[in-house]
Write a sequence for this structure.
């Protein structure tokens, strides 16, 4: 969830999804007749089993044009989509359609950081100023990568973080922290003592990756995460997607129809402008469930995955691991409560979530090209939460 600078909207999306996980009463169906279900079922590629998922009913309740989905275990996956990727062209969405994944991107940042921690090029508890090339110094204590990835860096997202893409990440962040103390960028609480959701923090972590490798962060993620895992319809930014990739356009619900929104563009691109397909996100999720490896390609060690998914600062941020967040599903539909790690995502025309039940070895992904989260309508957010729970319960065995 990540519209930069919109902390209140971000937390609202989480609150609505949290409500969705526990209960959804009187959810409305009002998506209109111009959206049709497509590719709502797909073979489990490991077992050959076909399972029909009524994704269309969840899509209709959420009032979004399309919903991409995946259910995974360590050894198998199934994925697909229901609805329309492009309403004006009547193009159906499918398992390989690229959706804006929004703040699911923060899990990619964390994975990239942990790769360099493994190699000794980054240290989680070093002063981040030593990596990014300019001062990022809270008046009361140094700020570290551990703080940045757990949202405990005591950094506020100012209005300028809403800027559209254009300047290089380092130029934007360097300007943001110029005279930071006098501009109220830092919160009163020392770093590491309290949680405040921030898009600037993980963006600084992405910049640290960029500076120590000498490689643009988007290219590092492509070469070190996406390519090894065979994520062919995944990239930061629309222009970086492979030619011919079908993309789900962003929309907002307007009564029984949908209003097309501009393509996303953010100065803090690493925390939001990720595009990926349900099938690709399923491969990433399986790699994490398998301790950092998939089909012989290893992107992290088991020890690094364990550290990344561990709650770091129990008193300050009990629901935050490194770039991943702890969520609790009450099991209203399945009858089984679950503790999961993952991340929600929201932007104008994007409502998403990726969750792993590590103990059970199962995961679920939902990506929608609509404003279910940003609408402020609990019933619409609840529909996507219910779908997540359904997918976790029906993950292929």
């Amino acid at each position: 969830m990540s519209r930069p600078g919109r902390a209140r909207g971000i937390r609202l999306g989480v609150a609505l999804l949290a409500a969705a996980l526990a209960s959804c009463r009187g959810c409305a169906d009002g998506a209109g007749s111009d959206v049709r279900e497509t590719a709502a079922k797909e073979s489990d590629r490991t077992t050959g089993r076909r399972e029909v998922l009524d994704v269309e009913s969840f899509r209709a309740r959420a009032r979004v044009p399309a919903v991409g989905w995946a259910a995974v275990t360590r050894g198998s996956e199934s994925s697909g989509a229901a609805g329309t990727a492009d309403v004006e062209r009547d193009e159906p969405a499918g398992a390989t359609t690229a959706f804006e994944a929004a703040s699911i991107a923060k899990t990619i940042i964390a994975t990239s950081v942990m790769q360099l921690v493994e190699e000794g090029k980054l240290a989680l508890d070093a002063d981040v100023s030593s990596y990014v090339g300019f001062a990022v110094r809270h008046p009361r204590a140094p700020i570290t990568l551990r703080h940045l990835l757990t949202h405990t860096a005591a950094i506020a997202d100012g209005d300028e973080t809403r800027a559209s893409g254009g300047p290089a990440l380092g130029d934007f962040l360097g300007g943001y922290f110029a005279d930071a103390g006098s501009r109220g960028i830092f919160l009163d609480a020392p770093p590491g003592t309290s949680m405040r959701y921030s898009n600037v923090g993980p963006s600084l972590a992405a910049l640290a990756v960029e500076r120590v490798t000498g490689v643009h962060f988007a290219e590092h993620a492509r070469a070190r995460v996406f390519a090894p895992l065979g994520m062919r319809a995944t990239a930061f930014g629309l222009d970086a997607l492979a030619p011919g990739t079908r993309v789900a356009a962003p929309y907002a619900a307007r009564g029984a129809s949908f209003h097309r929104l501009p393509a996303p563009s953010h100065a803090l691109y690493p925390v939001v402008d990720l595009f990926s397909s349900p099938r690709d996100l399923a491969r990433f999720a399986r790699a994490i469930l398998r301790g950092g490896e998939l089909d012989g390609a290893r992107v992290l060690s088991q020890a690094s995955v364990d550290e990344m998914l561990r709650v770091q600062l129990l008193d300050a941020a009990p629901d935050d691991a490194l770039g991943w967040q702890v969520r609790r599903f009450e099991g209203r539909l399945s009858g089984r409560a679950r503790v999961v790690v993952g991340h929600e995502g929201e932007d104008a025309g994007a409502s998403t979530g990726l969750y792993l039940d590590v103990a059970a070895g199962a995961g679920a992904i939902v990506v929608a090209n609509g404003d279910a989260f940003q609408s402020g309508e609990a019933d619409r957010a609840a529909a996507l939460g219910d779908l997540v729970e359904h997918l976790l319960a029906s993950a292929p065995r």
